[in-house]
TrEMBL record:
Keywords recorded for this protein, A-Z: Membrane, Transmembrane, Transmembrane helix
Protein name per its UniProtKB record: Dynein regulation protein LC7
InterPro entries per the UniProt record, alphabetical: Mycobact_SerProt_Inhib_Rv3364c (IPR053141), Roadblock/LAMTOR2_dom (IPR004942)
Residue ranges of the TM segments: 83-104
PANTHER family associated with the record: SERINE PROTEASE INHIBITOR RV3364C
Domain Roadblock/LAMTOR2: 9-100
SMART domains in UniProt: Robl_LC7
Classification via Pfam families: Robl_LC7
Upper lineage: Bacteria, Bacillati, Actinomycetota, Actinomycetes, Kitasatosporales
The keyword Membrane belongs to this UniProt entry's keyword annotation: yes
Keyword flag Cell division: no
Gene3D superfamilies assigned: Dynein light chain 2a, cytoplasmic
Amino acid sequence: MIQQRANFDWMLKELADGVPGIEMIVVLSADGLRIARYGGDPDSADRLAAACAGVQSLAGAVAQELPGSDGDMKLVVIEIDGGYFYLMAAGANAYLAVLADVVCEPGRMSNRMRDLVLRIGAHLTSPPRRNGQTV
């Protein structure tokens, strides 16, 4: 079950405080619904969460083409003009997304995200939905 959004605040703030350059952090469900955010405005976080659903689906399709892969997306890093976008699997049907500026070091970011997911991954889960309802 998803914890209340307020319970995520300190976890996401800890990540933001630990890596310079973070602009926004979003926890989202596999179907692109925002579960929690830190930084940025709610509308931007919702748009990022929706876009992440497409990115994780595309990454999963690419992963299936690699012999021996289970087809699951683990981490996507995209360098964009002015910074980086990170998307990491973070529990059953949940993902952790980060937008950061150029000050952010990609290796440090992915390590800190992985540490956060390992510590709280059980809390970053989203039950599957069918027709907008939890199954």
